[in-house]
Amino acid sequence: MGFDGDVTARYPDEARFRNLMLDHQSMVFSIALRILSDRAAAEEAAQDVFLELHAKLGELASDEHVLYWLRRVTVHRAIDLVRRRERRPEVAMDWNELPEIPGATGDVAIDDDAPFGAQLQQLVSSLPAVPRSVLVLRYQEDLSPDEIGSVLGMPVATVKSHLQRSLRLLREKAGRACVRPER
Which fold has domain 1-90? Predict the structure, then answer.
């Protein structure tokens, strides 16, 4: 019974993994996309997260634990990719001078009426990786500062500081973007 028994014994975990992946793939991709601002890098990060989930699934007891784990690993994986990209910058190709906002044509649509409209997404993308991650978890994933602190492994006061500084910086940048010289 060696092989058939192994398949039968593994089936519940394989089915659970498949269901979890289907349930959470858009959330994982969306978090990665908002942090990385690069569709290909977000796909790579999401794939890495789900490969790691497959390996660790037996250690994660409940669906709440899986959700917490997915958010935490996605944010950390995306921050790692941002840092790696900063250490080894790539030469950007000229795609009509301005990069297209990632996700505009894919699973995660960005439109001007969405909370992360095109202009806001560009402003948020200009923030450093950790403050950007805090904003994504707060305003996209609707996590409380306590939950964000838990996901990122930082004190709640630090989370609140990141939120306050980032929002102030975004307001300033948005204000400068709105002020246009008169002709």
Answer: Rna Polymerase Sigma Factor; Chain: A (1.10.1740)
